[in-house]
Amino acid sequence: TFKPLFDAVIKMYHKVDTINHPKPDFGDISKLDFGDIDPSGEMIVSTRVRVGRSHDGYSFPPCSNKEARIDMLKKTEEACATLPGELAGKMYRLEGMSKTDEQQLIDDHFLFKNDDRMLGDAGGYADWPIGRGIFHNPKKTFLVWVNEEDHLRFISMQMGGNLGEVYKRLVSGIQELEKKLTFAKKDGYGYLTFCPTNLGTTCRASVHIRIPKLSKLPEFKEFCEKLNLQPRGIHGEHTESVGGVFDISNKRRLGLTEYEAIQEMRKGVE
């Protein structure tokens, strides 16, 4: 099998000596010790926390098929229809989407596309756009992506630096959807997704932050590395910064709890 190869990659990327991921622990969201990490609003443009999930019992994208993707979309749409309060919203299926809905999702920067060469070569875009969908609430602060890279991506986001609000919303959404859906996980590895960099918590907490001077220092990337942070351009992986604004996120997702991953990003940014 490929286990020895992937285990070596996993250990190196996540900076762990052994693969022994703890049980999920989101902390007590009613007693968080953090809220707005930029009260002045001068540095942080927006805050986003997301997790990936795979439907239990379904193959990863390279080995999946059209029928499975359609079934996963149907199950996810039914589960999302039960979301209460501020989480409630609408699912937009990519197949047969109206031009009006498509343009609105493009304007909101919510619409994922089939333009990543690496993902395409790995079979991630088979049967496109069948079985793909995007769910969001009216405030556009809670989203579910269906069959983009992973089976599922749950995303909570908003303008400004209130990490506490963003995190609480995400955890509430996960807990509600867990009542209807079953996710793939493995002892020691945590939640399983398409990519070995995205195991364990699968949690990526990020801010778009204005750091024009810090980012120009030669040791900027080394500085981030020491804090277990990952800098990116604001349009995602392999993109450049715009106007000194960077996407800064936690790099480690395995070997620590969800709450610890959030705290690692928060402390690094502060």
Query: What fraction, in percent, of the residue positions are helical?
Result: 25-40%
Beta percentage is 15-25%
Number of helices: 7
Mean pLDDT, nearest integer? Answer: 92
Determine the structural class based on helices, strands and strand pairing.
alpha+beta
Taking the alpha carbons of the first and last residues, their distance comes to 43 Å
What Rg do the Cα atoms give?
A: 18 Å
Reported for the largest beta sheet, the result is: 8 strands, antiparallel
Shape: globular
Largest beta sheet: strand ordering? 2-3-4-5-1-8-10-9
Q: How many beta-strand elements?
A: 10
Uncertain parts: none
The H-and-E topology, N to C, reads as HEHEHHEEEHEEEHEEH
Description:
This protein is α+β, with helices and mostly antiparallel strands. The chain has seven helices and ten strands. It has helices at residues 3-14, 66-80, 99-107, 117-121, 163-177, 220-226, 258-269, and strands spanning 44-53, 90-93, 133-136, 142-146, 152-159, 185-186, 190-191, 204-210, 229-232, 245-250. The strands form two sheets. An eight-stranded antiparallel beta sheet has the order 2-3-4-5-1-8-10-9. The longest helix has 15 residues, at 66-80. The relative contact order is 0.21. The mean pLDDT is 92.
